[in-house]
Each structure stands twice: as structure tokens, then as C-alpha cells.
């Protein structure tokens, strides 16, 4: 059975998730640990719990999700998986760093391409890659169907959706991704976003104000 530990890192309160199972193997999703203290918190938890990281997974390439990417990849000597459509964003996009006064992180690692429908394995666990472009061209979510869990990155939040007002953002594609790829999932699936609290698919179907106009009951054709 999968276990999760979530960390909130950097000034954007980005969620980095460590996922592992009974075999001890695990993955690090979106290592946004920018300071030495944040990195130490991550490394100490992994070490004290006997977790063996075997992969780093990126939901997308924005800087707040990758501040600790190079250090983590080098420390554990493990591959980094991401969708190739975000490679340019990962290494050259300075929109957010310029806007908010941050320094663009140095990304000095090669990445392994992921595609829609790929299965990422660690231990006895499988994550299915679901491509959800819109927040960025290469945004993805990771679905653990066995454990009823979705890591949604910045595509879907509790009560909100990913922003699209930056280079590479596309509102229409984002909405197509959410409705075409996520809202069709079972309602009892827990959603772990890249920022903010956890939620479920059912709650977002019925309570998310950004999705409500599309979820109104159909007219029955009768008049009062």
C-alpha cells in the first residue's frame, strides 16, 4: 500500500510529495526545496524512514516545482521523468522568476520523456501518466488507480484550477484537460494538488466554482 509524505516548500508553498510502498522504493514528485533547510528536511525524512528513491517525477517545469531538482537528482543518482513539451520551460522560462524577483534555478540534469498512458513503476506501485496540457504545454497528472490517488500538479486544485496567464498557458486546453481527463475519473479518488489542501474528484465536480457552469443540471424541458 502506498504511503505519502507532503512537504510545502519555498515562498509559493509548493507541495513536494514523497511516495513509497512496503518495498521501501519510492519517488520524489516536484522537488521544490529551494533552501538548504528545506533540502535537509526532505533528505532527513527519506533517510530516517529507510526510503529508497528510484525516480524523480515532474508534473510540469515551473521553477517553484524544481528548485531542488538538480540537488536531489545528484544526491540520489536517480533519473528525472517529465513530459518533453516542458523542456524549454524547465531550463529557460524566467517569467515567474522575473515577475516575483526570484533567481532562475540552475537545472543541470537530463530528463527522461514521459507520454500519455505511460506507466511509472516503483516497488509494487504503478503511476499512470495522464497528460493534462493547459497550465503548461507539458503538464501531467499521476494516477494510482489501485490506491485511489491522483497527483494533479497545478492542473486542478481544491476549489480552483491552474493559472494560464503566463507563457505556454492555454485556458481552453486546460478546461479540455480537466473535463476530458480528470472529471471522468471515479469520484472517490483523492486529489493531491501542487499547492493547497487535498480534495477529491467528487468534491471538485460539485463544489469547484471554476467548474460549476459546466455542471448545472440539464433542463428537463418542462415548464412550471
Short description:
This protein has 224 residues and is an alpha/beta fold.
Which overall shape is indicated by the principal axes computed on the Cα atoms?
Answer: globular
pLDDT under 50 segments (min length 5)?
220-224
**Computed Rg:** 18 Å
The helix/strand series, from N terminus to C terminus, equals EEEHEHEHHEEEEEEEHEEH
Q: Record the strand order, biggest sheet.
A: 1-2-3-4-5-6
| Proportion in helices | 10-25%
Task: Work out the strand percent.
Answer: 25-35%
Layout of secondary structure:
Blueprint: E1 3-9, E2 14-20, E3 25-29, H1 36-48, E4 52-57, H2 69-76, E5 80-82, H3 87-92, H4 95-100, E6 111-113, E7 119-122, E8 125-131, E9 140-144, E10 149-153, E11 156-157, E12 160-161, H5 171-182, E13 190-193, E14 199-200, H6 201-207
Parallel strand pairs: 3-4, 4-5, 5-6, 10-13
Antiparallel strand pairs: 1-2, 2-3, 7-8, 8-9, 9-10, 11-12, 13-14
